[in-house]
Specification:
199 residues, seven-stranded mixed β-sheet, two-stranded antiparallel ribbon, elongated, signal, DUF4136, DUF4136 domain-containing protein
Length: 199
C-alpha cells in the first residue's frame, strides 16, 4: 500500500469516527467529550536514560508566536513523561508539525412534521429523513523524536480530530493531550482517545 492510500484511509476513518460527534455539535447537542484518533510508531524500550531534548523549528516556524504557544504545551506533555528540556547538547531532537484540512461530512437528519398528536420527529411518524451536508475541519498534529547522535527516529505520534470550528488553536490542546495519553503506546497502532471538554 502506498503512502497516499494509507493517508486516505486514515482520513476516511477519522471522518467516519467523527460524524456522530460533529452531528451532535452542529445540531446543538452537548458532546460528551473531544475524540481524537492517535497513531503511534516507536522503538522505545523504557530503558532510555538520557531524555534531554530540544525542540527544532523549521524556518517557517522560527519566530512564530503560534508555534511558540504550541511548543509550550508540548513541553508540558514531554516533561510530565520524564523528558528534560535543555538549551544545549541534547540527546534528543523533537519536531512539531500541524495543520488543518477542510472537508465535507454528510449525515442523515429526521425531517420534522406536525402530526395528529403534536410536533414529532420522523421516521416513526412517516416523515422520513433528509441529508445534511456540512463543512468540517480535520485538525492534525504530529510530534517526532530522534536521537541527535545518529539521527535515528525513535518516536512518532499523530493525533487527528474533527471539528466544526476552523480554528486550530482551539483543538491543539486536545491534540497534544490525546497524543501523550498512553505514552509511549503500542508500536504501529491507532486508538481512539476521548477527553472531557475543558471549561
Amino acid at each position: 500500500m502506498n503512502n497516499n492510500c494509507f493517508k486516505e484511509k486514515i482520513v476516511k476513518r477519522s471522518l467516519i469516527l467523527g460524524v456522530i460527534a460533529i452531528t451532535a455539535l452542529l445540531s446543538g447537542c452537548a458532546a460528551p467529550g473531544v475524540t481524537s484518533n492517535v497513531t503511534v510508531f516507536h522503538t522505545l524500550t523504557g530503558a532510555e536514560t538520557n531524555k534531554t531534548y530540544m525542540v527544532e523549528a523549521t524556518p517557517e516556524q522560527s519566530n512564530n508566536l503560534e508555534f511558540s504557544s504550541y511548543v509550550t504545551q508540548l513541553n508540558q506533555e514531554l516533561q510530565h513523561r520524564g523528558f528534560t528540556m535543555v538549551n544545549k547538547d541534547p540527546a534528543l531532537k523533537v519536531s512539531l508539525n500541524y495543520g488543518t484540512t477542510a472537508t465535507v461530512a454528510s449525515s442523515l437528519q429526521p425531517t420534522p412534521f406536525y402530526g395528529p398528536y403534536g410536533f414529532r420527529h420522523g421516521p416513526y411518524y412517516g416523515s422520513g429523513w433528509t441529508t445534511s451536508v456540512d463543512t468540517v475541519f480535520l485538525h492534525e498534529a504530529q510530534v517526532s523524536i530522534s536521537r541527535v547522535a545518529d539521527g535515528k527516529a525513535i518516536y512518532t505520534v499523530r493525533s487527528r480530530l474533527l471539528s466544526a470550528n476552523p480554528e486550530l488553536s482551539l483543538s491543539m490542546e486536545y491534540l497534544l493531550d490525546s497524543a501523550f495519553q498512553n505514552f509511549p503506546g503500542k508500536n504501529g497502532t491507532t486508538e481512539t482517545v476521548t477527553l472531557p471538554i475543558h471549561q
